């Protein structure tokens, strides 16, 4: 397992102190928490629900599974898991308290489908849980916003039980150059527009678009998973590679 950690500015992929990205993420996602679900639905033209279903399916959950949802935000993956697979327990965590507050409202409204949930503010670079304590770990749109990604992946590997699965949904790089070019235009123009429309906070959504373009392509990210100790690493592209679901086992 690789111990080399590379800390980056998540907006550019360049070396930078972790505080640069951590403070930005706290500010941006704290401000947009109430509108985040609606933004995902509109900006993906409704496709994100299918991506969530595929992420949950990739996590290999069973009735006895204890699921850790890291960078779980407002709970999209967790609640999809509760509806689709009904695991024994979900530990829903996020770095931003405002995002978890929205997730808790969804729990109070019964979206957990009878599945016990616990909520905790957690930095995915420093997970406060024991080794080998979860059957599966999920992360959706989270790894891209973490400055020390290898540290986070190593933490995921540490807390997974042997044979446990990590399923990670993240924006990625369309392999077709024409589709990639059109997608990058969409990121530059439309993501800030949707952000302004929903929150009047255009700069935060400029960051989101920049972070997507700066994130490593599929093969490079897959190698990071291997370096963190994961086996059977693979990925599947959706929407022509706009997003990919990466999986690995311990």
TrEMBL record:
Gene source species: Slackia heliotrinireducens (strain ATCC 29202 / DSM 20476 / NCTC 11029 / RHS 1)
UniProt-listed Pfam families: Ubie_methyltran
Gene Ontology MF term list: demethylmenaquinone methyltransferase activity
Name of the protein in question: Demethylmenaquinone methyltransferase
Gene3D superfamilies: Vaccinia Virus protein VP39 (3.40.50.150)
Similarity remark: Belongs to the class I-like SAM-binding methyltransferase superfamily. MenG/UbiE family.
Function, as annotated: Methyltransferase required for the conversion of demethylmenaquinol (DMKH2) to menaquinol (MKH2).
Gene it is expressed from: menG
InterPro entries in the record: SAM-dependent_MTases_sf, UbiE/COQ5_MeTrFase
Keywords: Menaquinone biosynthesis, Methyltransferase, S-adenosyl-L-methionine, Transferase, Ubiquinone
Pathways per UniProt: Quinol/quinone metabolism; menaquinone biosynthesis; menaquinol from 1,4-dihydroxy-2-naphthoate: step 2/2
UniProt EC number: 2.1.1.163
Binding-site positions, S-adenosyl-L-methionine: 74, 94, 123-124
HAMAP family listed in its UniProt record: MenG_UbiE_methyltr
Reactions catalysed: a 2-demethylmenaquinol + S-adenosyl-L-methionine = a menaquinol + S-adenosyl-L-homocysteine + H(+)
Residue runs in coiled coils: none
Lineage summary: Bacteria, Bacillati, Actinomycetota, Coriobacteriia, Eggerthellales
Enzyme class, spelled out: transferase
